[in-house]
Design brief:
Layout (H helix, E strand, L loop, with lengths): L1 H26 L22 H5 L14 H4 L11 E8 L5 E11 L4 E18 L5 E19 L4 E14 L2 E16 L4 E14 L12 E8 L6 E7 L17 E2 L6 E2 L5 H9 E8 L4 E8 H7 L9 E8 L3 E11 L2 E10 L6
Antiparallel strand pairs: 1-2, 1-16, 2-3, 3-4, 4-5, 5-6, 6-7, 7-8, 8-9, 9-12, 10-11, 12-13, 13-14, 14-15, 15-16
Length: 357
């Protein structure tokens, strides 16, 4: 009886702490609506996940997908993933590198599954210039993210999740930090094999940096849907991103659109304006199951293709990947064509250190 009381008190204390932190974040809420180019802490919105890379940029609605999907959508954490470890490496744009380590476990007493993760993005060695354009040597730039996530299944169909983030950026002598919160929910019908997810990302505030300036967080609201058709060897996913903003077009994009210098209005806009804007929100992905141990991913990101295409876009916006499940580990890979001159590659391994996978 005493043990039950102690556990109950601990759970109440933990709930109070989480509630307090949530209130602090909401009080300092930063509903940044600025363009991506004006936002900082991009590491908070870049998933280092092979499946996300291979499925158009996000796999937040894939219930039985890669372990690291739960860092993007904390409601995906499941008790079956207890004591799993995941390690990832990403070759990002312009020779930038990303690293990520993650651990998942489950608390039987409270029926809560939690995860701890650390992530870094290194942008390499950059050249420093003064205000007159004179070269002054080199410096290094790095982003770091510490993340703690937890989820709890309310019943057979509904799961809720929450994730706290602490981001830290160091560019030469400039330093800045930020706190963020992700809140997610999943509604899953096992009989129909479909899932509907809702996600609010990066609700929080930046902490004043060494230069005295503040920056905006990459806030985003998303919904996702995934389904495995009856007797089909694949699961498809459709994600609608940026619910908070309709027009995602870039005025500087090379899609034939220009800005009138007098009126400030867009000129030369496509006739398919509504459809073009809708497609920029959608991320498409398919997970093909090729036997009991092999999966193949395929994805399409229309928004990325339109923003980064050239006169000959080629495979820009197309992504691919796969996973191989062995006795004690799972190996994953994802590739995405961001530009005709740049491809992002992500590799990862997931394993149970002391038992079978």
């Amino acid at each position: 009886m005493k043990a039950i009381i102690v556990v109950s008190v601990k759970m109440k204390n933990s709930a109070c702490i989480l509630l307090f932190l949530s209130c602090v974040l909401l009080q300092k809420l930063n509903w940044a609506q600025s363009d991506a180019g004006n936002q900082s802490f991009s590491i908070m919105s870049i998933p280092i996940s092979a499946q996300a890379t291979g499925m158009g940029g996000s796999s937040m609605s894939m219930l039985r997908g890669e372990l690291t999907n739960s860092l993007e959508n904390p409601a995906l954490l499941d008790s079956s993933d207890r004591r799993k470890v995941s390690l990832h490496f990403m070759r990002y744009l312009a020779k930038s590198n990303g690293l990520q380590a993650m651990y998942v476990d489950h608390l039987d007493s409270s029926k809560i599954t939690y995860a701890m993760a650390i992530k870094s993005l290194g942008y390499g060695e950059l050249t420093r210039y003064d205000v007159t354009g004179v070269e002054e040597g080199t410096f290094r730039a790095n982003d770091f993210l510490f993340q703690a996530a937890a989820s709890r299944r309310l019943d057979s169909a509904i799961t809720l999740g929450m994730s706290y983030k602490l981001a830290y950026s160091q560019y030469d002598a400039q330093r800045m930090a930020a706190m963020g919160l992700d809140v997610a929910g999943i509604y899953h019908l096992p009989r129909s094999n479909w899932s509907l997810c809702g996600l609010i990302k990066n609700v929080g505030f930046p902490i004043r940096g060494t230069d005295g300036r503040k920056a905006s967080l990459p806030f985003d609201a998303q919904i996702g849907f995934s389904k495995q058709p009856k007797n089909a060897p694949f699961t498809y996913s459709v994600i609608y991103r940026s619910l908070q903003r309709w027009d995602l077009t870039d005025p500087y994009a090379t899609d034939g659109t220009t800005i009138d210098p007098i009126t400030g209005e867009q000129v030369g806009r496509k006739k398919w304006k509504w459809g073009d804007q809708l497609m920029r929100h959608l991320l498409w992905g398919v997970d093909f199951k090729l036997g009991s141990a092999l999966h193949f991913y395929l994805g399409y990101n229309y928004g990325r293709r339109m923003e980064l295409k050239t006169t000959s876009p080629g495979l820009t916006g197309i992504s691919w990947g796969g996973s191989l499940l062995m006795k004690r580990w799972q190996l994953t890979y994802g590739g995405a064509r961001w530009h005709t001159a740049s491809t992002v590659h992500t590799v990862g391994i997931c394993f149970l250190p002391f038992s079978k996978l």
